[in-house]
Every structure is written in structure tokens, then in C-alpha cells.
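Need C-alpha cells for this chain, all 270 residues.
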Amino acid sequence: MNQVFNTQWFSDESIAALKQQFNESKPYRHLAVDGLLDETFAHVLLENFPGKEAMRRYYEGLNEKKSAGSNFDNSHESFTPLRQALAAPHFLTFLESVTGIKGLVLPDDFRGAGVHQGSDGSFLDIHVDFSVHPVLNLHRRLNFLVFLNKGWKDEFGGKLELWNADVSVCEAEFLPSFNRIVIFETSDISYHGYDKITVPPGVYRNSFFAYFYTPVSENEKVKYHDTIFKPRPTDSGAKKVKTHAKETVKNLVKGTLRNLGVSSFFKKFE
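Here are the C-alpha cells for all 270 residues:
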């Protein structure tokens, strides 16, 4: 693969503009870029996006319905150079310049990079992501999402939604359009997700993800928690109660296991 990125975005002028967008965005720091990947390369990714049968995990529960994959050995050859390019020093320097977050790393595991796919009825309820890599003890700092959907229509739904801190208002949303990249800072208030999609047979909501981390220093107090889902204001009372109960128990169990040093529990999901 000859070229992964559209190099125009790496100029000093572009970096300055992206940095301003990132720092001034609400409800928390984020930015959206159309065309960060080279157009030809992005089309190759789309044309060779793995199907459901190649995915590693299938989520279908109270708060999500989607498929996820991360084994690039079984994917088209184009996905490996993308992951390598995102982990390369040049791109990490670019990302650090834009976000102001220093020391970024991209782990070489499924908590680092992979793909998500949703078919008709797919959804991902509002949530914040896990705070610390439970095996490598790295602080999760940024989500990097590449959408690979040609001709995505507004009526399909599936917009990436960014919600305020008490999950009362959606303050920003992005259609998952082809070669659109959304980067946002992950924290205890970075609530996001997407509503249920309605698409014809053979249409999928495809995205590539990369999660960037920084090392946890001895002086840094980062409290571990797993993904925390929150109900939408429009959800039924029953779903709100079920979601709260499920998330409380899940985080209690996983937090206890991590505090006890039971790393085998987390490693088995690698």
C-alpha cells in the first residue's frame, strides 16, 4: 500500500486549525476531519471490510448490538499498514501536536485497534469507555474512529452522538460518512454512542477504531472502571433500572478482580 494518509493535513497550518477545533469543541474536546486518509486507500479498506463471519465478538444485549474484530492476520492486507501507520512516531507526533496529550501509544491488541460493524437494528447506547487498560495498565486518552460507509443516508440513523456530562442533551453528532474521522478525548464525562440504525439488506455501519493511551505514572491517580452505559432520557423506566443495575454489578466485579490482580480474567479476552 503506497499511501495511507492525505498528507495535506500534516502541514503546520492544518495542524493549527485542527488543534483549535479540538480545544474549542463541546461537550468535550473533539474534532471531525473528512479525508484524513488517502482517498484511494480508504476505498480499498471499504471494498475489503471484513464481514460478520470474520469478526471476533458479537454483542447483542440490553445496551448494544454490533460486531467487533481485531485479528488483522485474517483481514485484508490493507488493514495492517493502517494500524502500523497510526502507531508510527510521525503520526503519534501529529496527534500529540493536535491534542496536546504527550506520550501517546497504540497497544498491539484488541484494546488498541480493530473494526466495528452493525447491520440493521444495530445500536450502541450512550456510555463512557473503560479508563485503564486492565492488562497493560495504560491510561486511555483518545478514541480515533474512521467511518467507511459510502452513500450513508440521514434516514439510516447511526450518527455518532456526543452527550453532555449528565446525559441529558446530545450536543454534537456526526453522520458516519465515508472517510470521516472523529477523534475525541476519553474521560469520565465523554459520553457517546449511536441510536438504532435502519438499513436495507446488505448495508452495514462500518468503522475502524484506534484507542490511544499514555503510561500511568506513579504520581498519577487514575481510577479504573470498565465501560459505563447510561440510559437515554427517552428510554423506558424499566430499561433505566436494568441498565443501572447491570452496570453497577459489572463494574463492581471487574474492579474487584483488577484490584486483586486477577489478570487472567482480562487476558482471556485478548
